[in-house]
Sequence to fold (612 residues):
Amino acid sequence: MLATRQLKVALGGRTVMADATLSLSGGTVIGLIGPNGAGKTTLLRALTGIIPAEAGVITLDDRPLAGWPPRTLARNITSVAQDAPCSWPMTVRRVVALGRLPHLQPWQRPTPADGEAIEEALQQADVLFLDNRNVLTLSGGERARVMLARALAGGPRYLLADEPVAGLDPAHQLQMMALLRERAAAGVGVIVTLHNLSLAGRFAIGSSSWSMAGLPRTAPRATFWRLRSWPKRSASGPPTAGHDGQRYVVPWEVVPRLSVVDRRQGSDGHGHGE
Amino acid sequence: MTTIAEPRGAVAGPSPSTGWAAWLVPAVLSVALLVAAVASLFAGSVSISAPEIVRALLGGNETVCEIIIWQLRVPRTLLAMLIGASLGLSGAVLQGLLGISGAAAFGAVLAFYSGFASLLLLALPLGGMAGAGGAVALLLLLGGPRASTLTLILAGVAVSSLAGALTALALNLSPNPYAATEVIFWMMGSLADRSFEHVTMTTICMLPGWLLLFSTRRALDALSLDEDTATSLGFNVGAVRLSAALGTALAVGSAVSVSGTIGFVGLVVPHLLWPLVGAQPGRLLVVSALCGALLLTVTDIVVRLFSTGPELKIGVLTALLGAPFFLVLLLRLRTKLS
Fold:
């Protein structure tokens, strides 16, 4: 269980996030939406142990993050950074192999088990056919999947993906989301930040009803977690469109925020599909 | 900033990741280094035949031959290898830290490295460890989190100017023309007339430096992705920077304290080699150390072969060869990008 209690994070003296409480267990997807600057990335960075908590605690299996050795932590929680860059023209396989680093002692050579994990990750993220390509020459969709494979190679229990679909075409967005859900079905706890509301609704609102064609209906339960200052519903509610008995939010116009109550509501864990 | 200049055409080359291929490059370099080291024993103003060299190596310190071999040539060869290895190794680590995908990053490394090297050199006339410590602190400060390529280039320019000003100051304040000449000669770099004491002294400082530099190997691999990702892979980026800076100060600092400035080795070598190791920064370290040692040993032979009048300084030669090499490399990058 990866959990936060009354988490407060400050960047450069400014409180970016306060009172965030959530818990993520294996097999669950949490979709994180919110406007730019709401603290989505900050939350993910805090959960990875990159930035410290100002107040409150983050625990992995009931033990504070700081109490874990960095490499053990890295084996358990892994993150896919937004627009993850690579600064050398390495092959895809080598980039994915970097995900195995937390499993290696400082002077240890990679073992056959590492090779298998890499192979598996390449397959899971559907990038096996790219394995010999230069990572700098990939398209956005390909690179996003390679970075996902890199994260999966470490065999994490929790996967935190920061806007993995940003800049991807609709088909690749759907594919990426399906990949993440597939991992969740395999027992990984996933947090994914998104700006695409319909996609968020499609994959995260509701519960077991959001299986996709070809995937079992027993797909893991997803929760939809609201960060502060999400625009409150206006009198008429936001425009929605429907398909297959579900309604999805369609961003249409900017609604003035009612930000007073938002902060409290933003920390209640789950359950708010608007 | 990463969008400026990614060499899209640059392919990682064949991927020698498994089996014999991974050992091929270091093996070839080791053999070449051994050959160069032996050849270097032959180079000098007195010509000594092979049997005489072997006899001298096995003998003591008595005949003229033995004295020339043991007190002049062997220390010189060892120093060339040690110093070259240090320069190549620290160059590879620095480039791994700064990243290399593009002309701009490349310029940053160039500016940065030369500035850093000259600061380390200045540590000598301006007070040993204090100077080295200052250079390290500056490196840590400038290479801080989220330093863009442009920041690094400008920082490199600033550091170089500072080094230039301090050099001028050292010359300005030198009590007599001899002291000034000494500083100037120091800036040219040389391996002539060094003794076994120099070898022991440098080795003692270099070894911990090498260890620190090698210890960054895996972290450098992780840092080919962004800093956050490297942290999430379990590496402490700050500690890696500190190891790299301290290692460089120890290894390169002790190298320049014996030889004076020998530029461009640390820059040229990693650039020549990265396509051969699949562009993986961690795997660049060993081969860069070997190739640096090889390059300096060969250059030192050339210096001795062509010295007729005043001694040709090895630092002058490496700069003469290195600078045009860089221009060519930049031109190639430019054509690739356009």
